[in-house]
Amino acid sequence: MGSDSKQVSKIPKIDLSGLHPSVAGGERWEAAKAEVAAALFSHGCFEAYFPSSSDELREAMFGSALPEMFALPLETKRRLKSDDVYHGYIGQIPHMAYESIAFDDPVSPTAVEEFTKLMWPEGNSSFCKTVEAFAKALHELVEIVQMMIVESLGVEKHYDSLVSSTTYAVRLSEYGVPLNQDTKIALDPHKDPNLVTVVCQSKIDGLEVQTFDGDWVNVDPSPNSLTVMVGQAFQAWSNMRVRAPYHRVRVLGKEKRFSAIFFSRPSHNSMVKSPEELGDEDHPLLFKPFSYTEFVKFLYSEEGRKAKNPFNAYFRIGNEEAA
Ligand SMILES: O=C(O)CCC(=O)C(=O)O
Ligand SMILES: [Fe+2]
Prior knowledge:
single chain
């Protein structure tokens, strides 16, 4: 594939419009659930048609909120500190035209406000309202997807314990023109460590996913769609029934690209434990309960970065097929 070409998407597209996590069940829910389960089993991802993230909201996010925030002075953006690896402000990485900011609990009543105050002590209510609305819409989508996965695996009774030990976060990113103009890769291939990720792209797309057959494909977003992906913590929790796909970002043109991600992850100090029902004689449970915090620390440690397959290296299952 030439560096300027894009492959036609093979990522399943699923209509989740009008569905809500508080009214699970019914014919439409069951039909969509079957599609979500099939897509996640075969691809680890899908393109969700979910119009609550409307044109207007996208325009407010990518036309104003994100460009305004990334235009702030570096020392302002660096005010956001985090003890978590790969959280807080990231940028000024050699060989990468990339900056991102991630903060927790965007659906709590005060978190976006506090973050806004940190960036703009004088206030910026349009930024705050936009990011709150974005988080609210995508939170519903993540809840729908998590609920559908758990139901499809037949382990509904573990849903409450999964959700009570889950936190949510937002990552806002800005990509410049990739320094490597041969590959045009702006973010290297990786699997997300968390539970479920939803990616919202600006008009300038670039997210590519590797199918389990090994082909890199463009996710082909529409103005009303979002990309849903499974992360490695869900892969482990589900005893490998759903698997996290590799993905990367390529920016082909010369314009800045923005993206906004909403994701779920196991909360601090909680232990991730696969439901016993997901193991049987033919498929024994592969993972002992693990701390997500320790897992992420390992992923970004020297040993984790060097490992060909950090997931396997962490869990020491030594089974290439399982990844
Ligand atoms: O910007 C995107 O489209 C995806 C970024 C991504 O994969 C990540 O931040 O983990
Ligand atoms: Fe990612």
